[in-house]
Fold this sequence. Notes:
By secondary structure, the chain is of the alpha+beta class. The protein has 2 helices and 12 strands, in the order αββαββββββββββ. A hairpin with a 2-residue loop joins strand 10 and strand 11.
Amino acid sequence: MKSHGNKGHASVNALAAAVVALCALLAHAASAQDAQVDKRKLTTVQTAAADCGDVNHAVVVRYLNLPFGEATFNYVETGKDPRNGGYYSGRTWPIAHLRLAAPATHDGKQLAPGDYVIYLTPRDPAKDADMTLTVASFKPAQIGGTFLKAGDVFADTPKDAQVVSQKKVKFARGASKVDELQVWVGKQNDKVDIKFHYGDRTLVETLKIK
Length: 210
């Protein structure tokens, strides 16, 4: 009688090898699919807020958790964007929707309760003009609404935005690197700090609440 033991082991080994190869192929396909996903389209509207005195949510900041793109943000910081025809350096970038339920001041300018867009204007090397941060009032299309849209990182600054406060800014470098925009809102006495943390860069803006 002939033994089929070796053939049996060979069949099992072949099957195991086939399973391993299939798993590796599926893993590679999943990895390739993940690489093709545009993380910008996965952004969602986030909220950070602070209470002041007896006013709940006196300061509310809504923003998109934008994935960090160092090259893209460099276009905004330097004002130089030859690869994209100046698109990134030639427009304003609304980074947050600020809602105030109490009067405040920013950089000495008075802000009445209401809605504001916070946007960045890229540096303009031709005019030797630094990057600026602007706080501008606007009216949402719907009560409680916002110009921010999940998955849309190219939202335009509201057309009816009226500048209230504007200042030169420069993001500090050296912070621990994060993969997406984070905004922290914290109160201390009569002041509220709004901290933007993007990649390894941070910017803190202070509101004085009346």
